[in-house]
Amino acid sequence: MGELRLEELSARNIVAANNLSLKPGQEAFVAPVSYSVAASVINPATAWQRVVLLDDQVAGFIHGNFDPNSEHEEFRACIWRINVDAGAQGQGVGKFASDALAEEARARGFDHINVIWEPGDDGPGAFFHRIGFVDVGETQYGETIGALQL
């Protein structure tokens, strides 16, 4: 495995983050409906956006949200979006990004983080379960809500 490190999302790396590729079948799972609905009320001050560099190349992106006052518990400390380039999947990029977000949540005083995903064979559920998330509920749209205790 190559060297992994985080870098804040910036004008220098946003194009590479936007051009991360997906494996066939993954495009249907990029953003759950719940996130699209809630995006209209996201406060830019609560967003935590990072790219993951693998050997100095953008290989992943993670967008977290930290808003202890959110009326929706699942959005108080959560992975809002995570994307790992198709060619970098299986190399620890997603776990590295998730661990970094979990560490940030812990430093901000949270005891768990959440994530929401669309269930399906090519979806991210198996990945989230592998790294420790457990199913804790379902959204009104039928998406799975997972939680990771810190």
Automatic annotation (TrEMBL):
Transmembrane segments: none annotated. The keyword Glycoprotein does not apply. Gene3D superfamilies: 3.40.630.30. The keyword DNA-binding does not apply. One of its GO terms (molecular function) is acyltransferase activity, transferring groups other than amino-acyl groups. Keywords: Transferase. It comes from the Bacteria. SUPFAM superfamilies: Acyl-CoA N-acyltransferases (Nat) (SSF55729). Residues 4-150 form the N-acetyltransferase domain. This is GNAT family N-acetyltransferase.
